Amino acid sequence: AQKVTQAQTEISVVEKEDVTLDCVYETRDTTYYLFWYKQPPSGELVFLIRRNSFDEQNEISGRYSWNFQKSTSSFNFTITASQVVDSAVYFCALSEETGRRALTFGSGTRLQVQP
Amino acid sequence: NAGVTQTPKFQVLKTGQSMTLQCAQDMNHEYMSWYRQDPGMGLRLIHYSVGAGITDQGEVPNGYNVSRSTTEDFPLRLLSAAPSQTSVYFCASSYSSHRGGEQYFGPGTRLTVT
């Protein structure tokens, strides 16, 4: 069965610091998809990125970057020069090619960026 | 496009009452699902549907019913509310043809059962 672990429950940083959110996953499928979602204090879920299991290229989008390593089953998320607006709960999720097509979520990491 | 809409936004129920959480999408997505979010546990799948007339159970289906009579709507019914069903409920939809496709989430319904 698939599983996503986000070991960091809460992280607090000061503005402009870099911060990395860890995500470790388990799956038996060879084809799968990894996601990151942001949940700001307003409560909605905001899609950030999707990565399939055959694409191990790291991705950068502005201050955000993602490091996908199949060898360690990790899909870590780094925010560079954090801002107060980055304060949110961040979820890593996994979807397998077989089965329900649903997302399996980690328990989330709450990021607090202090001014 | 309104995307995925959910009503109501907030609801308070007494133990034993029943109610229906509404979910609708206007993107012609075949796949729809319901999740619940509890503190420290992320989101967990309750029920899902791969098309009109087809539903199946997720990880935590007990106490909930669903039906899918149209592509657009996927209501979630609480048969006899219990305090353990106090949670935030999210509906999501996606294209069925792409398993790795982005799931679009509604704004959520915050339910309290007293």
Explain how this protein is built.
The complex is a heterodimer of chains A (115) and B (114). By secondary structure, chain A is mainly beta. Chain A contains no helices and 12 strands. Chain A has strands spanning 3-5, 10-14, 19-21, 24-26, 32-39, 46-52, 59-61, 64-69, 74-79, 88-96, 104-105, 109-114. In chain A, the strands form 3 sheets. In chain A, strands 2, 5, 6, 10, 11 and 12 form a 6-stranded mixed sheet that branches. In chain A, strand 8 and strand 9 form a beta hairpin. Chain B is mainly beta. In chain B, a hairpin with a 2-residue loop joins strand 5 and strand 6 (54-57). The radius of gyration of chain B is 13 Å and the shape is globular. The N and C termini of chain B lie far apart (36 Å). In chain B, 34% of the residues are buried. At the A-B interface, strand 5, strand 6, strand 10 and strand 11 of A face strand 4, strand 5, strand 9 and strand 10 of B.
Summarize the structure.
The complex is a heterodimer of chains A (115) and B (114). Chain A is an all-beta fold and 115 residues long.
Strand content of chain B: over 45%
* N-C termini distance of chain A: 41 Å
Radius of gyration of chain A: 14 Å
Low-confidence stretches of chain B: none
Helix-strand makeup class of chain A: mainly beta
What level of helicity do the residues of chain A show? under 10%
Mean pLDDT of chain B: 93
Key structural traits:
heterodimer, A: 115 residues, mainly beta, 6-stranded mixed β-sheet, 4-stranded antiparallel β-sheet, 12 strands, globular, B: 114 residues, 7-stranded mixed β-sheet, 11 strands, 0% helix
